[in-house]
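Hey,
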Amino acid sequence: MPKRKGSADYEVGYKKPPKHSRFKKGRSGNPRGRPKGSRNFSTDLKATLEQGVRVTEGGKPKTVSTQLATLLRLREKALAGDGRALDRLIDLARLYNNEEMTEAAKLGAGDAAILESFTARQLRRAGIAAQEPEAESGKTEALETDPELDTAPKQKPKDSIADAEDEDAWLR
């Protein structure tokens, strides 16, 4: 490597900057730094969504937050037949509503049976006693159970993992 003028035994190269261009001791490499009072994106977004907007609803003007105005516009588009707006509104409703799904949105009988079977199998594997589901007629159906797993959890043989994978093969 070439030596620079004024550096007797210092070789300039990879990860070895010239001494005159290094940061001086006690001096910051970013002297101005982040300006005081500057906000991050999350803070700016929250402030923007909280700002008031004038909206005409039912022929009367009123002031609502930007967030609410956006949701109202999404609702208008969905009701006007915009499929993307409807999908987005339904996704938001699913995500933020804590209520049970309506009767129309519940799983079909076949899907519910698959889900119950899967849940029961997972509970059996974990060694947790599964409760018997009640059929629509009011009778209880017994789950298919393995007598070994109905007792306290035991150490399973090593090949049981392969059996469990085979049992889930129909899901793939």
